[in-house]
């Protein structure tokens, strides 16, 4: 990640990108994976994972430190192996990224994506 400057967005697959902002968090326009933002942390450059600013509930509570539960749910609907989740501590609204795909939707890389091995008898 050499040559990255503070404020730039970074995709581990595609390098420096201008993210798509139409989802829960900024994402790489090429692959849809959440991007990291380079920020200065004192004397060094660090990479920050994006998070939604507000919950999607009726009240739109701000998701700030101490008011949001960060989680990960394993799932085989995407090649990353799961979903990052943010749960509002005020109203329990949960947002996930990347979006969940139903098993029959493409791409699906988990069990059942190729049912040729199943017995018909």
Brief write-up:
With 121 residues, the chain is mainly β. The chain has two domains: 1-50, no CATH class; 52-113, no CATH class.
Which tags fit this structure?
disordered C terminus; 121 residues; 7 strands; single chain; 0% helix; globular; mainly beta; 2 domains; 4-stranded antiparallel sheet
Description:
The protein has 2 domains: 50 residues, no CATH class; 62 residues, no CATH class. Helices cover 0% and strands 29% of the residues. The protein has no helices and 7 strands. Strands 2-1-3-4 form a 4-stranded antiparallel sheet, with no helix packed on it. A 3-stranded antiparallel sheet has the order 5-6-7, with no helix packed on it. Strand 3 and strand 4 form a beta hairpin. This is RNA-binding Zn-ribbon protein involved in translation (DUF1610 family). It comes from Catenuloplanes indicus.
List the secondary-structure elements in sequence, H or E: EEEEEEE
Number of helices: 0
* Low-pLDDT segments: 107-121
Counted up, domains total: 2
Q: Trace the largest sheet across and list its strands.
A: 2-1-3-4
Measure the end-to-end span. 54 Å
The Rg value, from CA coordinates, equals 17 Å
Strand content: 25-35%
Helix/strand structural class: mainly beta
| Helix amount | under 10%
Mean pLDDT: 81
The geometry reads as globular
């Amino acid at each position: 990640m050499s040559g990255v400057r503070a404020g730039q967005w970074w995709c581990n697959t595609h390098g420096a990108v201008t993210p798509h902002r139409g989802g829960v968090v900024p994402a790489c326009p090429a692959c849809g994976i959440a991007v990291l933002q380079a920020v200065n942390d004192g004397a060094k450059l660090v990479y920050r994972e994006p998070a939604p600013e507000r919950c999607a509930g009726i009240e739109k509570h701000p998701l700030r430190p101490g008011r949001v539960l960060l989680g990960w749910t394993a799932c085989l609907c995407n090649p990353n192996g799961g979903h990052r989740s943010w749960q509002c501590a005020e109203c329990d609204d949960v947002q996930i990224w990347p979006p969940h795909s139903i098993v029959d939707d493409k791409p699906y890389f988990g069990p059942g994506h190729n049912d040729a091995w199943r017995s018909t008898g």
